Amino acid sequence: MARLRDPERGRDPNAAVIDTDQQTAAREAHKTKDRADANATSILDGIASALPALLRAVMLQRRAAAVGFDWAAIGAVHDAVRGELDEVGTALAAGEATHIAEEIGDLLFACVNLARFARVDPESALRSANQKFQRRFRYIEQRLQAQGQSVNDATLAEMDALWQEAKQNVPRKKRAPKAPSKTKRRRHSPTDLC
């Protein structure tokens, strides 16, 4: 297989232009061969356990999907998230901390799978949610300060009312660009830069 290189470094003019899904499939096939050569016992071998949990979940799911162990459609993934949320509710009702933690972990794993299916980077999505929470909470703090109060003095009802106000008044961050399409990438020539 011809390896595609950066144009400035001398791209092979005979190399085929392939889309990102084909690149991913080729990379996974190459890794599968490497794992076979290394006597790996599982397709999941080689995914470092020290990786951040969100990234590791994505990688585990991609490996499983590469061999066909995947949902047929995003609706089924959405239903799985709802099912996991119901299981969290059952665990909360039972009140056993270990079971609650296990079910919350399953819910997070299912949410990562939903993000993968929707072509959303879960790390970026969570980072954006954190930033949105901060903007809204700071709005609450500023409004309370303008009234001569602090969050320590305010009641939950007051803060909740300001939270609802913040949802209406705090501008949303610009939407992230759409995920890359599954179309082939166009080869660029030096004249494209002119």
Task: Give your account of this protein's structure.
The chain is an all-alpha fold. The chain folds into three domains: 1-70, no CATH class; 71-120; 123-172. It contains six helices and no strands.
Quick recap:
With 194 residues, the chain is an all-alpha fold. It is built from 6 helices and no strands. The chain has helices at 20-37, 53-66, 74-94, 97-117, 122-146, 156-169.
Percent of residues in beta strands: under 5%
- Tally of domains: 3
Low-pLDDT residue intervals, each spanning 5 or more residues: 182-194
Distance between the termini: 32 Å
DSSP E strands, number = 0
Mean pLDDT: 84
| Relative helix content | 55-70%
Number of helices: 6
Q: How is the biggest beta sheet arranged?
A: none
Instruction: Please compute the radius of gyration using only Cα atoms.
Output: 23 Å
Shape: elongated
Characteristic key phrases:
194 residues; disordered C terminus; 3 domains; single chain
Topology readout:
Blueprint: H1 20-37, H2 53-66, H3 74-94, H4 97-117, H5 122-146, H6 156-169
Helix pairs in contact: 2-4, 3-4, 5-6
